[in-house]
Amino acid sequence: MAEERATPLRLGSTAPNFKAETTTGPIDFHEFIGDKWVVLFSHPEDFTPVCTTELGAFAKLEPEFTKRGVKLIGLSANTVGSHGDWIKDIDEVTGSKVSFPIIADKERKVAYLYDMLDYQDTTNVDEKGIAFTIRSVFIIDPKKTIRLILSYPASTGRNTAEVLRVVDSLQTGDKHKITTPINWVPGDDVIVHPAVKNEQAKELFPDFRIVKPYLRFTPLPKDKTSAS
Ligand code: BEZ
């Protein structure tokens, strides 16, 4: 059962804990996180077209998330039995093998706890008038801190490569004193963190260059090219 959500979830909030049934068995969410990063993503309904493509895509990219110490967990507002039947379709249609857990949130308790429900689009409801669970993505770090929140409309599929890119940016930024610019992908130059003074930047990043006093680019030195 999910706990009540007292305050809005923001970047930096602790990911609320909950217990839930999933396609791989019951979980306590904080125990599930353990010492890993987690991508939690939600779906409006089972057997819906956009969600089918999304789950297949996440399953195909799962090895890349695993390499980065990231666990995937989906959520959809239906039962475990329904999820199981849907997974067969997803694997058939997309050529994937969905093996990460999908939370059964028929009562939308976790969706409420994580503020995933559609507010503005009042037509986005099921036959009982309950708002569908929207397409949310949460990236949660091993300290259980929420590091990214994305909300997509039901009509628009997400971009798994973008979710992975943010993981790369967050992990690289945590490891080194850098931030990442627009459209950054691993291998591109990064930005020296504003808190790092030029003297320290010279030591950390010998090839850094000053474009403006507040905008300093650097390649990541060879031994720092990944987050690990
Ligand atoms: C879909 O996943 O295709 C979908 C779900 C709910 C509303 C509209 C589309």
UniProtKB/TrEMBL annotation:
Keywords: Antioxidant, Oxidoreductase, Peroxidase, Redox-active center. GO terms for cellular component: cytosol; mitochondrion. Residues 9-172 form the Thioredoxin domain. The keyword Oxidoreductase applies. The active site is at 51 (cysteine sulfenic acid (-soh) intermediate). Coiled coil: none annotated. Transmembrane segments: none annotated. InterPro entries: AhpC/TSA (IPR000866), Peroxiredoxin_AhpC-typ (IPR024706), Peroxiredoxin_C (IPR019479), PRX_1cys (IPR045020), Thioredoxin-like_sf (IPR036249), Thioredoxin_domain (IPR013766). The keyword Ion transport does not apply. GO terms for biological process: cell redox homeostasis; cellular response to oxidative stress. GO terms for molecular function: peroxiredoxin activity. Belongs to the peroxiredoxin family. Prx6 subfamily. Thiol-specific peroxidase that catalyzes the reduction of hydrogen peroxide and organic hydroperoxides to water and alcohols, respectively. This is Thioredoxin domain-containing protein. It comes from Apiospora kogelbergensis.
